[in-house]
């Protein structure tokens, strides 16, 4: 059984190839090509939290259509107990700079809980609903309808076929497509693949919004954003918008072979945090992709940002070469296969607060391949983006994409 954790406090739309005659919403490009989800299954419309839980756990293929906000906050009580106030939180309080830091829920004591560095005891109160995620079994499509498809107060765990009682994950998952999703206001990772990994996943046309009142870095920016690791993990990140984060956007923990092309970095202090021994080809004007992949790669663009250079780039291209989803990828194709969304004039609120930021980090472990093809210009029309906040933008044509998709991003926030 594999697990994919997905922390959600906004709109969710796990789209698939052809959900039903009424919900034909395109098909994924990238490594998740061919994913069908709940295609040919019954279309259901949950009205209560209990119905939503039951549908997501059902054994048969389903298209689960979200037409409202499912708010789990306060539904499972609260817990008050001794927690940890790490040194970073104490320093943030002392700084009194208008931002709030985070206390830590203890898991294995003060000395063995991640995030509790040099911690002191404090009392913490938390909502129990956050600790137990929604389980989604195989062959499911979760389709949000515009702004009405919102899940608040719980994350989601995607689980593979033939589940047998283990919680750590022993079987690598396949065919996961996350499309047109907004994730915001979470405590830790927005998206994580877990140890078993996911062999074929595409995350496309999605908004990972890190603006928060409670940040580990005391600057209003989310830190743990996307963690990709596990055995035999392959992910395509296509046409996404990741902003207001201070790091790990994403973190690649693995014997990672990464192709990064067409990315737009604006005011990113560290586009690449260099630790470990992963392999990265960062496309520049001197394109080597044609030689290894049979196609050209789009150059990355950096504006008022640090260096983003290849690390053993030819080794990365050699490792990626067998993946036809990468070699045959055409910038803009992920947009074409997405569902058409109603255009909107909504704006995205952008913070103007100064903060240091860091982008991807590549680390060493088992096996991981990642492709991030996008383009080099960000001109999103009515979406007014601060140059201080737009840390990591991926897009094939963001002006058109945002006009089409902003209306599909939910507005749920956690207080």
Explain what the structure shows.
Helix content is 11%, strand content 28%. The protein is an alpha/beta fold and 415 residues long. The chain has 2 domains: 3-75 and 132-408, Single-stranded right-handed beta-helix, Pectin lyase-like (Pectate Lyase C-like, 3 Solenoid); 78-124, no CATH class. Strands 7-10-1-13-16-19-25-22 form an 8-stranded mixed β-sheet. It has a 6-stranded parallel β-sheet with strand order 11-14-17-26-20-23. It has a 4-stranded mixed β-sheet with strand order 12-15-18-27, with no helix packed on it. It is globular and about 60 Å long. 54% of the residues are buried. Residues 5-22, 161-169, 336-369 and 372-415 have low confidence and may be disordered.
List keywords for this structure.
six-stranded parallel beta sheet, eight-stranded mixed beta sheet, 415 residues, PEL, alpha/beta, glycoprotein, Pectate Lyase C-like, disulfide bond, 2 domains
The CATH homologous superfamily of the largest domain is called Single-stranded right-handed beta-helix, Pectin lyase-like
Low-confidence stretches: 5-22, 161-169, 336-369, 372-415
Strands in their spatial order, largest beta sheet: 7-10-1-13-16-19-25-22
Q: Note the main sheet.
A: 8 strands, mixed
InterPro entries: Pec_lyase, PEL
Keywords: Disulfide bond, Glycoprotein, Signal
Biased composition (Low complexity): 333-345
Domain Pectate lyase: 99-271
């Amino acid at each position: 059984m594999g697990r994919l954790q997905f922390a959600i406090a906004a709109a969710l739309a796990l789209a698939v190839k052809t959900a039903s005659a009424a919900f034909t919403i395109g098909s994924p490009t990238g490594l998740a090509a061919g994913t069908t989800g709940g295609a040919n299954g019954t279309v259901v419309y949950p009205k209560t939290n209990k119905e939503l839980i039951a549908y997501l756990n059902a054994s048969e293929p389903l298209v689960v259509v979200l037409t409202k906000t499912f708010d789990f906050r306060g539904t499972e009580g609260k817990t008050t107990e001794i927690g940890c106030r790490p040194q970073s939180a104490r320093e943030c309080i002392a700084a009194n700079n208008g931002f709030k830091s985070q206390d830590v829920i203890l898991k294995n004591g003060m000395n063995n809980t991640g995030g509790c560095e040099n911690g002191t005891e404090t009392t913490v109160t938390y909502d129990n609903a956050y600790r137990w995620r929604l389980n989604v079994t195989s062959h499911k499509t979760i389709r949000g309808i515009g702004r009405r498809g919102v899940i608040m107060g719980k994350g989601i765990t995607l689980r593979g076929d033939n589940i047998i009682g283990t919680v750590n994950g022993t079987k690598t998952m396949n065919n996961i497509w996350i499309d047109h999703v907004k994730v915001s206001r979470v405590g830790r990772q927005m998206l994580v693949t877990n140890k078993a990994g996911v062999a074929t996943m595409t995350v496309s046309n999605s908004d990972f919004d890190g603006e928060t009142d409670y940040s580990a870095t005391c600057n209003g920016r989310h830190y743990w954003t996307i963690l990709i690791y596990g055995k035999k993990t392959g992910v395509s990140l296509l046409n996404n918008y990741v902003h207001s984060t201070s790091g790990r956007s994403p973190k690649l923990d693995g014997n990672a072979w990464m192709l990064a092309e067409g990315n737009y970095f604006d005011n990113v202090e560290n586009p690449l945090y260099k630790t470990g021994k992963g392999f990265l080809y960062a496309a520049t004007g001197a394109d080597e992709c044609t030689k290894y992949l049979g196609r050209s790669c789009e150059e990355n663009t950096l504006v008022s940002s640090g260096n983003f250079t290849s690390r053993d780039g030819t080794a990365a291209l050699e490792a990626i070469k067998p993946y036809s989803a990468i070699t045959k990828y055409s910038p803009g194709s992920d947009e074409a296969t997405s569902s058409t969304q109603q255009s909107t004039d909504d704006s995205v609120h952008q913070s103007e607060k100064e903060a240091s930021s860091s982008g991807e980090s590549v680390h060493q472990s088992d096996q991981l391949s990642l492709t991030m093809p996008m383009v080099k210009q960000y001109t999103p029309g009515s979406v007014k983006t601060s140059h201080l906040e737009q840390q990591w933008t991926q897009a094939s044509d963001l002006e058109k994409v945002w006009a089409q998709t902003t209306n599909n991003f939910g507005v749920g926030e956690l207080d």
